[in-house]
Write a structure and sequence with these properties.
By secondary structure, this protein is an alpha+beta fold. The chain is built from five helices and nine strands, in the order E-E-E-H-H-E-E-E-E-E-E-H-H-H.
């Protein structure tokens, strides 16, 4: 599965982008895409690449839970693109509201939206997938690839040391 964006032109000539969760299967030797879910309107707050979370105290992150570290990474990205932290897990910017406690990304009129960030898309689906990420019976190499793809698809910028720490926290087998 992957996220596909579609461009729509308005009558005034401006472009709107919408994102969909799509699966692809081969049928009669040709790829066929099936739209599984509408994810929301794509918004791009920043054309710059964000910087990774600065780990000043590694011991703090070694003791933290995997889900808390992922939420810290998402919070870091949101603050860098101009979101204001209203409460612990609540962020606002213009008409856009993100609740990391309930994992919701909504506009002021309750419509879902997707943030284009770095090389990925941060939305309810990708945030949930990363926070609740689990490995199946796969080799360590396959698990690293799956986890890397999940991080990239979310658009989170992460440094190598924190990636290794996260992987060790969720990899179910001995390293």
């Amino acid at each position: 599965m992957y996220i596909r964006t579609k461009n729509r032109s308005k009558k005034d000539g401006s472009q709107l982008n919408y994102s969909y969760l799509v699966s692809s299967k081969r049928k009669y030797k040709k790829p066929r895409q099936k739209t599984l879910k509408y994810l929301g309107k794509v918004v791009d707050f920043s054309h710059k690449i964000t910087t990774p979370l600065n780990i000043e105290d590694k011991q703090t992150y070694v003791q933290k839970d995997y889900k808390d570290i992922i939420k810290d990474l998402i919070k870091n990205e949101l603050v860098q693109i101009g979101f204001q932290n209203i409460k612990d897990d609540l962020f606002l910017k213009d008409i856009y509201k993100i609740d990391l406690f309930n994992i919701t990304f909504q506009t002021s009129n309750k419509k879902p939206f997707v943030i284009k960030i770095n090389d990925g898309f941060l939305c309810k689906y990708t945030a949930n997938s990363l926070i609740n990420f689990k490995f199946e019976n796969k080799t360590q190499k396959e698990c690293i690839k799956l986890f890397t793809n999940q991080i990239i698809s979310t658009g989170i910028n992460i440094d190598k040391e924190l990636f290794i720490l996260l992987f060790k926290k969720i990899y179910p087998y001995e390293n």
